[in-house]
């Protein structure tokens, strides 16, 4: 087992939706501030489509490992990987070099579907709404995951909806 914690970060609507047309179906400024504070300095693993939704450039203060099966795709200032397994190894190596003990997995849907099987921790922003969308997050199985922290967050002036931020730990971890 690796000494590097693998944490999924996701915002998910009550009906499981996480995305629509290559973007998030909400604006959650309060959540983005917390997300930044929790991920800055740590390597992040992200799928190509999600990376492109960032404008095709890395989020500040984080080394990125971008996953694409297409060997011809190469983005400047990021590490490329052809699979989630390859990306995890690369991100863990970056974390060790930086003296970090955690990597952040930022999606999208296909990446989450694979990563939920081995991640140690999930930081989930439950968006208190049902929304239309084309990308969903897998169900969080209470036999596998236990909520260790929960914080109700009212909608701020730049937030579309109120949220509930929950940290889940894998039960067998």
Largest sheet, spatial ordering of strands: 5-4-3-6-1-7-10-9
Strand content: 25-35%
Helix and strand succession?
EEHEHEEHEHEEEE
The biggest sheet, with number of strands, parallel, antiparallel or mixed sense and barrel status, is: 8 strands, mixed
The residue ranges in which pLDDT falls below 50 over 5 or more consecutive positions are none
Quick structural summary:
With 173 residues, the protein is of the alpha/beta class. It has helices at residues 29-39, 48-53, 84-98, 109-115, and strands spanning 5-13, 17-19, 44-47, 64-67, 79-81, 102-105, 121-127, 135-136, 145-153, 163-170. The protein has four helices and ten strands; from the N terminus they run E-E-H-E-H-E-E-H-E-H-E-E-E-E.
What can you tell me about this protein's structure?
This protein has 173 residues and is α/β, with parallel strands linked by helices. The chain has 4 helices and 10 strands. It has helices at 29-39, 48-53, 84-98, 109-115; strands at 5-13, 17-19, 44-47, 64-67, 79-81, 102-105, 121-127, 135-136, 145-153, 163-170. The strands form 2 sheets. The protein has an 8-stranded mixed sheet, with helices on both faces. Strands 2-8 form a two-stranded antiparallel sheet. Helix 2 links the parallel strand 3 and strand 4 (64-67). The protein is globular.
